[in-house]
Amino acid sequence: MKIAVIGCGYWGPNLIRNFVQSNKIEELTCCDLDQKRLDRMKSLYPSVKLASNYEELLQKPDLDSVAIATPVKTHYPIAKEFLSEGKHVFIEKPLTHSFDTALELVKLAEEKQKVLMVGHTFEYTAAVNKIKDIVDSGEIGKILYISCTRVNLGLFQPDINVIWDLAPHDISIILYILGEAPVSVNSQGRAHFKAGIEDVATTTLNFKDGVIAFIHNSWLDPNKIRRTTIVGTKKMLVYDDIEPQEKIKIFDKGVDVPPYYDTFAEFHLSYRYGDIHSPRIEDYEPLKKECDHFLTCIQNGVSPLSDGYSGVRVVSILEAASKSLRLSGRSVQTQGLKLLNKKSKNNGNGFLMASSWR
Amino acid sequence: MKIAVIGCGYWGPNLIRNFVQSNKIEELTCCDLDQKRLDRMKSLYPSVKLASNYEELLQKPDLDSVAIATPVKTHYPIAKEFLSEGKHVFIEKPLTHSFDTALELVKLAEEKQKVLMVGHTFEYTAAVNKIKDIVDSGEIGKILYISCTRVNLGLFQPDINVIWDLAPHDISIILYILGEAPVSVNSQGRAHFKAGIEDVATTTLNFKDGVIAFIHNSWLDPNKIRRTTIVGTKKMLVYDDIEPQEKIKIFDKGVDVPPYYDTFAEFHLSYRYGDIHSPRIEDYEPLKKECDHFLTCIQNGVSPLSDGYSGVRVVSILEAASKSLRLSGRSVQTQGLKLLNKKSKNNGNGFLMASSWR
Amino acid sequence: MKIAVIGCGYWGPNLIRNFVQSNKIEELTCCDLDQKRLDRMKSLYPSVKLASNYEELLQKPDLDSVAIATPVKTHYPIAKEFLSEGKHVFIEKPLTHSFDTALELVKLAEEKQKVLMVGHTFEYTAAVNKIKDIVDSGEIGKILYISCTRVNLGLFQPDINVIWDLAPHDISIILYILGEAPVSVNSQGRAHFKAGIEDVATTTLNFKDGVIAFIHNSWLDPNKIRRTTIVGTKKMLVYDDIEPQEKIKIFDKGVDVPPYYDTFAEFHLSYRYGDIHSPRIEDYEPLKKECDHFLTCIQNGVSPLSDGYSGVRVVSILEAASKSLRLSGRSVQTQGLKLLNKKSKNNGNGFLMASSWR
Amino acid sequence: MKIAVIGCGYWGPNLIRNFVQSNKIEELTCCDLDQKRLDRMKSLYPSVKLASNYEELLQKPDLDSVAIATPVKTHYPIAKEFLSEGKHVFIEKPLTHSFDTALELVKLAEEKQKVLMVGHTFEYTAAVNKIKDIVDSGEIGKILYISCTRVNLGLFQPDINVIWDLAPHDISIILYILGEAPVSVNSQGRAHFKAGIEDVATTTLNFKDGVIAFIHNSWLDPNKIRRTTIVGTKKMLVYDDIEPQEKIKIFDKGVDVPPYYDTFAEFHLSYRYGDIHSPRIEDYEPLKKECDHFLTCIQNGVSPLSDGYSGVRVVSILEAASKSLRLSGRSVQTQGLKLLNKKSKNNGNGFLMASSWR
């Protein structure tokens, strides 16, 4: 297969490295407006071809697919052109900058029967897949809430705020684990350095039947924290991505509710403090698995785990969060919820696709 | 001085232990409705007197003061009776269950010229006082935001939610450090085990000129976390109360904004990664200092650091948070803001009292 | 029962507190040469009796037992006098300052049929007992080695070096777990502040059939570390006594040796990296359990878990370590090894007593 | 310059990667007996040349230097041949398998006036260089002792024990910091899996005037620990190489000795507990710096920081440790101590070379 990576700035080189090492790729083209970035890529990987603008690739008939790692606002126009030309498209998270454009890409991909995949990398980590297995096995019980912290002294993005930059990871993890999209979103944050670009924020996702998820993101925290706490009726699980050895800990801790109790009498809960278990997590580069999954989906004509709908769901939530920020934290409904929870038939992660596209 | 501690349940015994060991106290009466608790106190401290209801103490002419550690809803009626009788009153946090009742107690204490103090214990810790000094010295620069996490598998309170239980600590620390009350409050949470009693919540305090504080509280987290992150324009500070040796770390990290920049050109921030410094913190029991402060204020006729106004401010914020919870996280103005920020003359912690009461 | 605690300095007050709270004790006498210490004890525990020298207690006919918490060199003469008078004796670790004196006390206790117990506190912790159970269950496999680190910026003892101060804990834990005494001991250390009083040292215990234990002790380490690593053929266990929540971790890690291999071919080991499990440890004060065990042994006429022989074994190893220090680390045989490994009949911890004494 | 890397197994590829990326290298030859390793190198770095045995490289006239990363016992014969042919030689640690062979290589390099460098990588880390600066500044005071722990579940080496595998790092760090070689060495360990190949050991280095260093190494520890504690008369320093953010911590802790005291009176020390400071450490790959240093030394005709004498010193200590192991931990003099402490003129790290070779 022949692929082009568009955008060789911050993230693109990681995609290039993985596609270069893939035995499914026979030709890789690096595309960037900046000749210096192209020269750098060539020096690292002498076998790559170069292109100084993506338009010249549109007419390349033997190009199978593109991977887009450009600024978020350009995802939609670039992807649209390549999908229109019948290319398979991989887009870095978030899929696009708005619900409408995201949905339009999904529709276009379905119409063209091409793979549209979004780079929700954490869905390809061994840790998140292990958590998914644990949750699905019922060991945790019914999930009550999820709390995520993803902060560090991080690079400010020029065009998107900290929620659009960091929360896609948290949101995609939460949706993957719960297999459900939230009904509404609240978000509160502040832009301290650049007007309109919030650098710290807390976002709340409200699901039906009382499940809630909290996401705290910051570009201004001295400590790097990447922690997800999942509280269930039976057990509690903490996923700490910074921890080298014990990324997942399952706590046999919790609250035991008496089977029934006299409403006039005092309400008594008992607390359970038990063992802690840390399952071994396989060690691999998730991006390698993600890139390979994209290529495999093209070969087999199947929908990826993090398909376009997955991208739409995340963008819908990001858009609602942005709206809530402008409304002083007021609750905002997520768009297209019905669509969001429509079940796809073949990706097996709780969401089933709206229609099989092949 | 003669003191009575009313309520010998969970927290009262800590007050009793400290007052028993104080050389300012010549007589201590333990008061509880439950005879078993009274017997237990007598066995631990044979010198104490006992009382099975607080009413009998109201008429005790030589009683100087009471310390109230009963359920929150009873703080107001009990305190009101003792203040009316001209006793000095110490109340465990939060001061009362509503802004109106809290303010009424403050007015009554002023009228009676008696000390009214609330048990915001953290204002008496060496760590928080060290942080206050550091912030006031200008080392951190202007504070941009504060983020607090106070979670663990905690005992459910029968009558108050997790915000009223845990956030008073965070709020009193934040207000003490900033010397300012917030304009509005947002809060989002869920009650998973008992209707109306939220067991997990995130609260946001919005201050004027863009400062924001985030507070995450839970009774359902497998890890005990008590962390406060203060991000300033010059440095960042993390206060981790669980850490035995390095409770405070000051990070010479941050974002350097160029003095001016062409608005048409790209916005460039530079990042600073520097040394980390952990000042030595004195080792003492804050409750001992708090109890002694109450007695000293009585002796000297001065207003305590955590005076009634301090209590009112915290209660006002808690009440706003509760209201926001009922409004799906909508922003709620804090009551009596003008009063809240009125400056007192003698307590030296940024807030000055509404009027000197002696 | 009536008991006297001799020595109210650093450790004695902990014994006093526990005996005061015991319902098995009707009268407790505090004994110290320093009147100020006695006054302090009286102010903390008004019910205690006082004695300004231990000789006056020797003739007290209704005194059942004494607990000795004086400087190490005085353990032997004081204990000898009380045993001679037919009192049960508890001695803080180490039992005495030499093998010969330690053994003499054991013989005397046997002759007088009195309880002689040494304060090897860690044998009464929930963690060490849990480890003992795990090891005995065979889960760890055969133990290959044990490595202990017990360091901090610690108070220098005026009369004993860091090995005699800290290593008794490590040695008693190791012997309790292995159920076996070492054949020989090596020790290397230095005295930086007071001639002859080593403040840092490493001691190695050599057991038969290749088991080895390493003990590193220091009074001069900036970090407080109390870690014991037990490496077995099947699993590895780490006991970190500083850790509040996960004191014991069992690692399903190890080396798998092929069942047989051609000695001419390359030697291949495979490595196993598996789950980590942290069992819940009960939460209680070990000293309370220890004090109660002493009183129970008196009541029931049975030998304590940490009996005199246990004390002799530890002293024998300490003495060998001191000798090795003087011989530049040369290997020194432990004295009385045969005796050390004689099996007692009733204490159930792998060592059986030389003779039942009642 | 043209270089060959001999040995493309475990460590060689790291050298190859760094030399390939160096702009000082115009031709790199990979040499290994195993064709599969050569093919692998060619696939990673298409520009490299290949050689299936090192003998064919001996006669290559334009080859400037070789880097040897073969099993330890082969270091000496291979290096000897290349030095004899007038090539500059870099050897992975330890330099050779014995003091005599190591010294012979040094003499040969001096005679041939060629660079002989040993890969003591840690001398090229930012952290160790920072520590060296701190110690040399006098901030720590006079060093009293150094304690090193370097353990993990590590790959067994087929031909060398855990001391020869791991301790060269600790020893080279200790010698670099102290600028002095030890007088004698003690070592105690056990071989649990392969006769004669110790998998766990503790080694003690005894310096003149009472300084001592402890090194604990294991291939069988479930936790990866790389910690060096340096205790000085003024401050204490901990270097934790696992820590991502605070690799070095300086503790203003210590023991204050009174200026004089009556020897008949009690000996009183006071303890100082102060601030903790963690200096920022530059972030770079030490191996890159090491490889570049080798090439720079060739270009400038100067002796490297980790020159042959540095290699001899480490090997002398390893040899003494091995001898001590066979003597049940008895103290063994280091060979050639006088030579070891001879000062070189130009490498500026405390050791001065025996003779300037150019």
Keywords:
homotetramer, 358 residues, alpha/beta, Rossmann fold, Dihydrodipicolinate Reductase, domain 2, 2 domains, nine-stranded mixed beta sheet, 17 strands, 25% strand
Give a nutshell description of this structure.
The structure is a homotetramer of 358-residue chains. Helix content of chain A is 32%, strand content 25%. Chain A is built from ten helices and 17 strands.
Tell me the layout of helices and strands.
Four copies of one chain form a homotetramer.
Chain A: E1 2-6, H1 12-21, E2 27-31, H2 35-44, E3 49-51, H3 55-58, E4 65-68, H4 75-84, E5 88-92, H5 99-112, E6 116-119, H6 126-136, E7 143-153, H7 162-178, E8 184-190, E9 200-206, E10 212-218, E11 220-232, E12 236-240, E13 248-251, E14 254-256, E15 270-272, E16 276-278, H8 286-300, H9 308-326, E17 332-333, H10 337-341
Parallel strand pairs in A: 1-2, 1-4, 2-3, 4-5, 5-6, 7-10
Antiparallel strand pairs in A: 7-11, 8-9, 8-17, 9-10, 11-12, 12-13, 13-16, 14-15
Helix pairs in contact in A: 1-8, 4-5, 5-9, 7-9
* Protein chains sharing the most extensive interface: A-B, 50 and 50 residues
The largest sheet of chain A is: 9 strands, mixed
Bin the strand percentage of chain A. Answer: 25-35%
CATH topology of the largest domain in chain A: Dihydrodipicolinate Reductase, domain 2
Written description of the protein model:
Chain A is α/β, with parallel strands linked by helices. Chain A folds into two domains: 2-121 and 287-315 and 337-341, 3-Layer(aba) Sandwich (Rossmann fold); 123-284, Dihydrodipicolinate Reductase, domain 2, CATH 3.30.360. Chain A has helices spanning 12-21, 35-44, 55-58, 75-84, 99-112, 126-136, 162-178, 286-300, 308-326, 337-341, and strands at 2-6, 27-31, 49-51, 65-68, 88-92, 116-119, 143-153, 184-190, 200-206, 212-218, 220-232, 236-240, 248-251, 254-256, 270-272, 276-278, 332-333. Chain A has a nine-stranded mixed sheet. In chain A, helix 4 (75-84) links the parallel strand 4 (65-68) and strand 5 (88-92). In chain A, helix 1 (12-21) packs across helix 8 and helix 4 (75-84) runs parallel beside helix 5 (99-112). The longest helix of chain A is centred in the last third of the chain and has 19 residues, at 308-326. Strand 16 of chain A pairs antiparallel with strand 16 of chain C, so a sheet runs across the interface.
